[in-house]
Amino acid sequence: MESSTTYSIVEALTKAIVEHRLHPGTKLAEQKLADHFGVSRTLVRQALFQLSQNRLIRLEPARGAFVAAPSVAEAKQVFAVRRMLEAEMTRAFVRDSTPARIKSLKEHVAREQAAVDR
Questions:
Q1: For the segment 60-117, what is each residue's pLDDT rounded down to a tens digit?
Q2: DSSP string covering 65-87
Q3: CA distances (Å), origin 87, targets 69, 99, 100
Q4: Please, what is the angle between helix 72-96 and helix 99-117, to 10°?
Q5: For residue 54, what are the contacts with CB-CB under 8 A and spacing of at least 6?
């Protein structure tokens, strides 16, 4: 149970960081997180440690946990990898496309645009 709970906390915080709902430099208070997730601070600490191993947060002794701010070099690496992945995904889509997949993609893009417009 504990490992699945820790995993759930890690997943939720990872998603919040990736979606920029938690910005670089944001302090992650253990007690607030424990209250939010309805768990002990021990489970929160385990999740924060895992996030620090993934370099999504940094743990500072006597200060706490903070959302990591990537360096310029790290950001460039991420964007380079993203460009490669997106190019390969596009090639695969074009190679394997069907009228149904193209229709589905157009519908998805329309939903994204509607969400942006709200």
A1: 999 999 999 988 898 899 889 999 999 999 999 889 999 999 999 999 999 999 999 9
A2: EEE----HHHHHHHHHHHHHHHH
A3: 26, 21, 21
A4: 140
A5: 14
pTM for this prediction: 0.65
**How are strands ordered across the β-sheet holding 57-60?**
27-28, 64-67, 57-60
- State the amino acid at position 91 in one-letter form: R
Compute the half-sphere exposure of residue 53: CA atoms within 13 Å on the CB side of its CA. 7
47 Cβ neighbours under 8 A, 6+ residues apart: 6, 9, 10, 13, 33
Amino acid in position 79: F
CA dist 84 and 94 (Å) reads 16
Q: Which residue has the tokens 């990736």?
A: 18
